[in-house]
Specification:
Number of helices of chain A: 27
Oligomer: heterodimer
Radius of gyration of chain B: 16 Å
Number of strands of chain B: 5
Number of helices of chain B: 4
Distance between the termini of chain B: 32 Å
Strand order of the largest sheet of chain B: 2-5-4
Largest sheet of chain A: 9 strands, mixed
Structural class of chain A: alpha+beta
Shape of chain B: globular
Number of strands of chain A: 25
Order of helices and strands of chain B: EHEHEHEEH
Structural class of chain B: alpha+beta
Strand content of chain A: 15-25%
Helix content of chain B: 55-70%
Largest sheet of chain B: 3 strands, antiparallel
Shape of chain A: globular
Largest interface: A-B, 22 and 20 residues
Chain lengths: 907, 113
């Protein structure tokens, strides 16, 4: 470290040394004069004794900074100047690495934020997710890893394993701080959530251990929400917020760094579970119901407790609880097999240092794939820079030979070359870091979920910088390896013997590099082609319903203070107003929105010749009769819902839309194919749920063509019920509008405002946009890997072109002789093409195993295309070969135009 | 022979500097003169190598330096021994004594044969 600190105070050191030496010099002169020498003689003598001030200064500097540091600094200066002298080389090399490092850093930023980053809580490594493995009899409400609230309370008492166990559920709410309610995300939590995580308040207090055991209308708001909605007001504690029109008192603001435990969705506020009944449209008895699964359960292991020991240790208690459950009042009647499955359930603990996130689950694979792609791209850029350096080294042959002859050691020259490549990597890398935030921002727009844009950050943080600088160092060293190796093999005498411009130094190495580039580029091209084919296949397949001129939006009336029947009337009124509006051609209502990734689903019983249980969940929805017409979904057999089916709760007796509520259903073609193969489906009775006491309540009255529910990829069996029999006071409106969909937004908004000025409309989009959005992950993979593969292709073509031009220049004399001896220009062309073909073909041969490995990696992301699809690979190989030959054409043409006389005279 | 003096053995210059400075703080020119005097002009010291040696010892932490007024009234850089420099000097003196003792033993043996 000392040399480095000395370097920064070198001005002062120099001044002091100069003073010190002058003192010596002057004293010596005066002493010598005193002993009788003349002034000139004394000066001469003193100078002689010191043997040159400049040399002493040099020697002392070596001591101050060490020889090594001084050399590096001189190397850097030298590199920098020589880069300035060859701007085109420098720009190419820096740009290659800028793109490589910028892309890798940008993707890594997302990998880090979404997949790797631990929560900003106390000792996140001790957090585990506790999940039910097996058949969890009951009903679910939410996404993944769901358990019941009572089980969470039970687990919290297992103090020999856990310091604490908390539960949480992310819920969309309509939130108001006084003005119009706006959609927001709330996290319903058990009281010990904050204490167990170890997160404190920025202001006021957070919820404490028992805050969820009794009704307690309070909330903790997030730091961001406090800043944006309350303007950071210091008197926020004690104010009221309206959550679904239910007033809660703010008791505190959470710590600024804490943004919930789901990286994809940042809650605006935290609400104790005791309030969930008041603020949520869920069953009133969800809190006590062991069969109602709606929370994720996480725990903090005791100090020194391992995950395995806790998992094994919990099973006896859990088995006993399962037995107890069977005997509890209200446990549904199930088949003996199901009972077996229920009793065979176990608890599964998984490490959760970075919380729980459905975004992570969804994006993990695409992000890792993209990261792998950018690393390959960075490798290609390294190879490119290596090739450029080798080319430059052969141009600098004379300079280097001269330096060797003057006594520079091989190691010294190698270090100079390494400094060269490190400097290029550093400049390229810093530029790359500078463009990374822009790239990250663009990437975030690709991510599937709309809400996450505020959850992820495009900025550069210290972890990202660390990654980028590690990438720079590795890149610099890797790009320098080939030139250094080459320079180490150089022998002084042969370099000097060769005349400038005839050496073949480095050509073989450059050919190897180009071959490797071809292999890597081919892998990326094939990958990109696979993703593009998948995306195309998905787009061609489409959702199975009309999307042009279609607009949809959702309302959740019950969240906004309506009772169920009032809410139902609101839905009804909006539906009617839409139909009467001149902007709307036709419209319909569905209980659940399509293409959101989620669905209403349940197991079903089919009463055909015998009773059949569905193999898994059937996707369900309730729609108005116009739905099929509006969406362009065909009724392929039977009939649409009619007025009899759609008897509203007011005039018919169906005020409870439970399992028995639906009299009629329309099922999808795939449902018929799977469960009623060969039979006439019409008139067959079905029912939600399975088990001995399921009644054949619902009659199949029609069959509809297949279309997408959760997402475009999925082809699941569906059963649709008539909407008005349901009491659910929420719905998604689908409207086919006149003119462009965007121009209709204002009038649609006006229609809803007429009914209720404060009712928020959510998911207000055109259907085209929703289809696009639901393919975001696929589009991200396809677009990015496509651009990366084009870059890769360009890089390798530049490399190929460079080597071939070089070869032709170096072989001009040989070609001249051949032509003079009677070879045809065509054979000269062949001479060059043969070289290029050898590189391209071996590159392809080396690339094939890479393609195979890459295919295995990405298999699950593909749609209707095999990872080693012969057509894709053939096309990619042909395209690459053709592009490669094009890059060789100009050098080959030059070879054929060599004039023998001139080539020989030039000697 | 034009020069009756022999060059100083490698590595002993450091030890001599430490020894001189251990008596009292001194500046570079002073040390050079003291070296001349002490060695009674037998040992030839290249004044050019004195300053790199001083800076090396300073960097190692065996010497510390301070600008003070010298006997002529002009400011000079005075070097003095640090505690670790004192320890180093003791160690070097010790090993020097052992080396010369051993060399002497070898000489004596040859003389006896």
């Amino acid at each position: 470290m000392r040399p480095l600190t000395n370097w920064f105070r070198r001005k002062k050191l120099e001044r002091d040394l100069s003073r010190e030496l002058h003192y010596h010099f002057d004293r010596r002169i005066s002493d010598l004069e005193r002993s009788g020498l003349s002034a000139t003689e004394a000066r001469r003598q003193a100078t002689l004794e010191l043997r040159g001030v400049a040399q002493i200064q040099e020697e002392v500097r070596d001591i101050w900074f060490t020889r090594w540091l001084r050399d590096v600094v001189y190397d850097l200066r030298f590199s920098f100047r020589s880069f300035l002298r060859t701007p085109s080389f420098t720009v190419t090399a820096v740009l290659s690495l800028m793109l490589g490092i910028g892309a890798t850093t940008a993707i890594y930023s997302l990998v880090d934020q979404v997949l790797l980053h631990a929560l900003p809580v106390r000792q996140p490594e001790r957090l585990v997710l506790i999940d039910w493995k097996g058949d969890e009899v009951g009903t679910g409400f939410g996404s993944w890893n769901l358990m019941s609230y009572p089980i969470c309370r039970d687990l919290d008492r297992q103090k020999q394993f856990f310091e604490g166990v908390f539960c949480r559920a992310l819920i969309p709410v309509d939130l108001s701080t006084g003005g119009d309610p706006r959609p927001a995300t709330a996290e319903i939590i058990s009281g010990n959530y904050f204490p167990v995580l170890g997160v404190g308040p920025a202001l006021g207090q957070v919820l404490a251990n028992d805050d969820d055991h009794v009704p307690n209308p309070v909330a903790v708001v997030s730091y961001d929400f406090w800043q944006t909605q309350f303007g950071g007001a210091s008197d926020v504690v004690g104010r009221k917020v309206l959550v679904n029109r239910h007033p809660l008192t703010v008791i505190g603001v959470a710590a600024p760094t804490f943004r919930g435990i789901d990286v994809g969705e940042v809650p605006s506020l935290w609400i104790p579970a005791s309030e969930s009944i008041e603020v949520l449209p869920i069953d009133a008895n969800s809190l006590d119901n062991r069969r109602s699964h709606w929370v994720q359960v996480l725990g903090r292991l005791n100090e020194g407790m391992t995950l395995q020991r806790a998992q094994v240790g919990l099973q006896p208690w859990f088995k006993a609880m399962l037995q107890d459950d069977l005997g509890r009042a209200g446990f549904p009647v199930i088949t003996p097999e199901r009972r077996q499955r229920f009793l065979a359930s176990s608890l599964q603990l998984t490490p959760a240092p970075n919380g729980h996130s459905s975004l992570r689950r969804q994006m993990a694979q695409p992000l890792w794939i993209l990261f792998a792609v950018t690393v390959v791209l960075l490798g290609l850029a390294c190879l490119n820079v290596s090739g450029l350096f080798l080319a430059r080294a052969s141009a600098r042959e004379r300079e280097i030979a001269t330096r060797l002859a003057l006594g520079a050691s091989g190691g010294r020259l190698g270090r100079q070359l390494l400094v060269d490549s490190l400097l290029v990597a550093f400049i390229g890398g810093v530029l790359g870091i500078a463009i990374a935030p822009l790239a990250v921002r663009a990437l975030i727009a690709f991510l599937p979920n709309g809400t996450i844009t505020n959850a992820l950050q495009a900025g550069i943080n210290s972890r990202l910088l660390l990654f980028a600088f590690a990438a720079i160092a590795i890149t610099g060293i890797l790009s320098g390896l080939a030139p250094v190796w080459q320079s180490a093999r150089r022998s002084l005498t042969s370099s000097l013997r060769e005349r400038g411009g005839t050496s073949f130094g480095g050509v073989r190495l450059r050919k190897i590099i180009v071959t490797a580039q071809v292999a890597l580029a081919l892998t990326l091209v094939v990958g990109a082609a696979l993703f593009a084919r998948s995306l195309n296949a998905l787009m061609a397949k489409g959702p199975g319903f009309i999307t042009s001129s279609m607009v949809s939006f959702s309302i959740e009336a019950v969240r906004d203070g309506y009772s169920s029947s009032e809410g139902q009337r609101v839905v009804d009124r909006i539906d009617k107003a839409l139909r009467e509006s001149p902007t709307v051609q036709t419209s319909a209502v569905a209980r659940f929105a399509l293409l959101t990734g989620g669905s209403w689903n349940s197991e079903m019983t089919i009463f055909a010749d015998r009773k059949i249980d569905s193999d898994g969940d059937v996707n369900l929805n309730a729609v108005t009769p116009r739905f099929f017409d509006t969406m362009g979904i065909k009724i392929v057999a039977g009939r649409n819902f009619n007025d009899q089916d759609v008897s509203t709760p007011d005039n018919a007796g169906f005020s409870t839309p439970d399992n028995a509520g639906y009299r009629s259903a329309i099922v999808s073609e795939s449902f018929v194919k799977r469960y009623l193969g060969g039979r006439d489906p019409l008139g067959v009775r079905i029912s939600q749920g399975t088990g001995p006491n399921v009644k054949p309540t619902t009659e199949i009255v029609g069959v509809m063509s297949d279309f997408s529910y959760r997402g475009i990829r999925e082809d699941s069996e569906q059963a649709y019920f008539p909407f008005y029999e349901s009491e659910h006071p929420a719905g998604t409106f689908y409207a086919k509008v006149r003119g462009t969909p965007e121009s209709s937004f204002a009038s649609l908004r006006a229609i809803v405002r007429d009914v209720d000025p404060t009712l928020p409309m959510t998911n207000f989009h055109t259907l085209d946009e929703q289809v696009n959005r639901s393919l975001n992950a696929e589009r991200m993979l396809s677009t990015l890997s496509g651009s990366f593969s084009i870059l890769a292709l360009l890089l390798s073509l530049v490399g190929l072109y460079g080597v071939m031009s070089f070869v032709v220049t170096r072989r001009t004399r040989e070609i001249g002789i051949r032509l003079a001896l009677g070879a045809t220009p065509r054979s000269a062309i062949w001479l060059v093409l043969r070289d290029a073909l050898a590189m391209i073909l071996s590159g392809i041969a080396i690339g094939l195993p890479f393609i195979w490995a890459f295919g295995r990696l990405v298999q699950s992301q593909l749609y209707q295309v095999k990872p080693w699809d012969p057509a894709v690979i053939t096309v990619a190989v042909l395209a690459l070969g053709l592009a490669g030959l094009c890059a060789t054409l100009f050098p080959a043409y030059r070879a054929s135009r060599v004039n023998p006389t001139e080539a020989l005279r030039a000697e | 022979m034009t020069s009756p003096r022999f060059p100083i053995p490698q590595g002993t210059l450091d030890m001599l500097i430490l020894q001189i400075v251990s008596l009292e703080p001194a500046h570079g020119y002073g040390i050079a003169q003291r070296l001349e005097q002490i060695s009674r002009s037998i040992v030839q010291i290249n004044q050019g190598s004195l300053y790199p040696a001083l800076h090396r010892l300073e960097l190692k932490g065996w010497l510390k330096a301070k600008w003070k007024q010298s006997e002529t009234g002009r400011e000079a850089k005075f070097y003095s021994l640090t505690p670790s420099g004192r320890m180093q000097l003791a160690a070097e003196k010790d090993s020097w004594a052992r080396l010369t003792g051993a060399v002497q033993l070898i000489f004596d043996e040859r003389g006896g044969a």
